[in-house]
Amino acid sequence: MQNKKPTVLVILDGWGEAPENRANAISLAKTPFMDNLKEKFPFTLLDATGEAVGLNENQMSGSEAGHINIGGGRVVIQDSYIIDKEIESEKFFSNPVLISAIRNAKVNKSKFHLMGLMSTADSQHSSPNHFRMLLRLAKKNGIKEVYCHLFSDGRDSYPKCALNLLENYKEIIKTEGIGKIASISGRFWAMDRAKNWDRLIKAYNAVVFSKGEKANYPEQEICIDS
Predict the structure, then answer these.
(1) Are 80 and 129 within 8 A, CB to CB?
(2) Which of 27, 61, 63, 183 is catalytic?
């Protein structure tokens, strides 16, 4: 039996094709190995944004969506896209998991809490409209108060834009007529995925035990370095 040659999938994060200019680090660098590969072997380009990677049209992607689609060998629909379509069809408002959570809070006379990332509209990790629809769903099903635990973004949004993001989320709360901001944490602490418990515990204590620095209004606890 003839031995099969192995196939190797290698992903170079950050490597892409773009017109040559003074801001293109790849075209400015000396890349003899990659140049040699392009000269000797066939190649093609992959679209790395929008519907090509399972997101909404023209939506910027990230490494996670790209890796999943390349590894899957097909278009893998992303969660944010699925949620958007559920909202469009209004199936979102009868989602059994969400309805069960609301029913549980009402039966046990518990407080209803939401927690999540504040972001701009084009983030693949969260959506202001999803936040709006969750508030609307809670109100529609008889929840009187929703306590919101917001995480400021430092990766998918512009640096030092937390105050602008907060203003947008406060406006959503105002127009929907339900919701109170209970805590604000940074993504660095609340969404750490490198098992740094010393970071995560601070956000955990703020959300679960209401421990942390107190403020009279949300903006007071957001520090912007000059």
Answers:
(1) no
(2) 63
What's the rounded mean pLDDT across residues 145-168?
88
pLDDT tens for 14-35 read 888 889 999 999 999 999 999 9
93-221 is classed CATH 3.40.50.2300? no
Residue 193 tokens, joined: 């995925």
The model carries a pTM of 0.84
Query: Can 94 be counted among the known catalytic residues?
Result: no
Give residue 106's identity as a one-letter amino acid code: K
DSSP string, 4-40: PPP------TT------STT-HHHHS--HHHHHHHHH
Residue ranges per structural domain of the chain: 30-72, 93-221
User: To the nearest whole number, what is the mean pLDDT of the chain?
Assistant: 91
pLDDT at 226: 34
Contacts of 180 (CB under 8 A, 6+ apart): 145, 146, 147, 148, 173
